[in-house]
From TrEMBL:
MF terms (GO), sorted A to Z: nucleic acid binding; RNA-DNA hybrid ribonuclease activity
Domain RNase H type-1: start-end pairs: 247-373
Listed name of the protein: RNase H type-1 domain-containing protein
Cross-referenced Gene3D superfamilies: Ribonuclease H-like superfamily/Ribonuclease H
């Protein structure tokens, strides 16, 4: 059906979405009702019915919500006006600011988190498992379709980090007064707003949208590797078969690649009574080793087709990932599809283990290293998606580090222990969380938040923080055998026995607080 230039239709399962772009309420009503009439005529011919009572209209204004929104009718019935509408799991509001969607996914995530927290208490679910579940499921729910609703406003950033904060508290078991910045560091979980920025940037690059950037850093999208479906008939698809054998051959080709100092080279060596030698070629520096392995195989097959079309050839490679990828019926990679098209009954593929003294493999390896030193690029390939993701992820970590380095940022006590951000950190014990945040059961914390006016009975330290009880307090000297004054918190965390002793000391402090703390009048 032709609805006109400014009318688009989106159908998904049994839902139909009609989009109308126009200036002025009368034009909107005119275009919308014209399209709806065409849909009604189609429904009669197709013998289907629309649920008019479920049909909704939501207007999006150029400058926000319409004070006097347009009204339309469908089949003689007025369409109900809505301020919010869920489309494929995304809640769109008439302001298009994304806040209702964040509220919606936040409630969904926290409902799941409550159940996981119960499982942690009753079933022994560790904080590390909670972190894994967050990264694999809850974070995906939280940032789902971020390019459609994420704008990076202060309100959005505050709201989404507030939702993430509840998860961080569950993972670490830290006190609720601990800053979100410190919780992100000790859990090793990236700020949710930066993940949304990353998802948006990746989407813009993948779909060739203009001006892709990550927090102001311009990203190069023109050279990205893109897959163009070849629409091959299923009967013509030729998934590869390979084995681990090393048979005798009259024509053998060995392929290998090299990536040294950021330069990528590929080569194949030919073993044939009539002709022996190698062919080398250098690829773009941004190419991955996987891309280079595939290109080496492709070039070897092209040489074989041109020079020995009727001779049976045994092709050897040490890249098992390439061979397994060639086995896929739908690899969704143009280079893999081109190699599959080159394969026929005159070619046998074999995997050979690298660097075990196989002459052909060693010869190809030497040729590939020489190829990486060639002065010019011989073959140009697009930047692989994995490299783009890695680059944007490095930008995310750099931005996270810049935030953590700011002197006015919260969590400066934790900064002295963990000055560098890392996703490998995970403090998932409530006692250790007190140790690395100084938010715990000690006079310093209790006085700071006006919970209790008390001091340590030993009277040796005016601060009376967590470190006082870990290293110096004489009232806990009987509990201290491995931990000594002058040690750092990092040294304790790096030693399992010292970590166990630190937890024991803090547990003792909790159970004997009446004997250790004295009230201040």
């Amino acid at each position: 059906m032709d609805f006109g230039q400014d009318v688009r239709i989106l159908a998904y399962a049994d839902d139909i979405y009609l989009f109308v772009a126009a200036t002025g309420k009368q034009n909107i009503k005119k275009f919308a009702e014209s399209a709806l009439n065409k849909l009604q005529e189609w429904s009669l011919s197709a013998k289907v019915q629309f649920a008019h009572e479920k049909t909704q209209l939501i207007p999006f204004g150029k400058n926000g919500r319409h004070k006097h929104p347009p009204y339309c009718s469908f089949n003689g019935k007025a369409i109900k006006l809505a301020r919010q509408l869920k489309i494929l799991g995304v809640v769109l509001d008439d302001y298009l600011n994304g806040n209702p969607h964040i509220q919606y996914v936040g409630e969904k995530v926290l409902k799941i988190l409550n159940r996981l927290t119960i499982a942690r208490t009753r079933r022994g679910l560790s904080g590390r498992v909670l972190k894994l579940l967050y990264k694999r499921t809850l974070e995906r729910i939280l940032v789902y379709a971020a390019p459609a609703w994420w704008t990076g406003t202060v309100k959005q950033t505050t709201k989404i980090n507030s939702i993430q904060r509840q998860i961080l508290l569950a993972v670490t078991g830290a006190f609720r007064t601990t800053s979100t910045a410190a919780l992100q560091i000790i859990s090793g979980i990236e700020p949710a707003d930066l993940v949304c920025e990353m998802e948006t940037a990746l989407y813009r690059i993948k779909h060739s949208l203009p001006n892709p950037n990550f927090l102001g850093t311009q990203l190069e999208s023109g050279q990205a590797e893109r897959y163009s479906p070849s629409w091959r008939h299923p009967s013509s698809i030729n998934p590869a078969t390979w084995d681990l054998n090393s048979p005798e051959f009259s024509l053998g080709i060995f392929t290998d690649v090299s990536k040294i100092n950021g330069q990528v080279g590929a080569a194949f060596s030919i073993f044939d009574p009539a002709h022996s030698g190698d062919l080398q070629f250098r690829l773009d520096n941004h190419c991955s080793v996987f891309q280079a392995e595939l290109m080496a195989i492709k070039q070897a097959l092209l040489w074989k087709k041109a020079q020995r079309p009727s001779t049976h050839c045994h092709l050897f490679t040490d890249s098992m990932s390439s061979l397994k990828a060639l086995q896929k019926f739908k690899p969704n990679n143009n280079l893999l599809e081109e190699i599959q098209d080159l394969l026929d009954g005159s070619i046998s593929l074999h995997w050979v283990k690298a660097h075990i003294g196989v002459v052909g493999n060693e010869t190809a390896d030497k040729a590939a290293k020489e190829a990486s030193d060639r002065p010019t690029i011989d073959i140009h390939l697009g930047i692989p998606e994995r490299s783009i993701k890695s680059h944007i992820r490095n930008l995310l970590l750099r931005e996270w580090q810049d935030r953590w380095n700011k002197r006015d940022a919260k969590g400066r006590y934790t900064f002295c222990i963990f000055p560098t951000v890392s996703t490998k950190i995970c403090i998932d014990n409530h006692l250790l969380s007190q140790m690395v945040t100084n938010h715990g059961l000690c006079p310093h914390y209790l006085k700071r938040f006006q919970l209790r006016a008390c001091n340590c009975r030993c009277g040796e330290d005016q601060d009376d923080g967590i470190q006082h009880y870990l290293f110096w307090c004489p009232l806990l000297s009987s509990e201290r055998s491995l931990i000594r004054p002058g040690m750092s918190i990092q040294q304790i965390l790096q030693d399992k026995n010292k970590t166990r002793e630190a937890k024991s000391n803090l547990n003792y402090l909790f159970s004997h607080q009446q004997d250790i703390f004295e009230e201040v009048s």
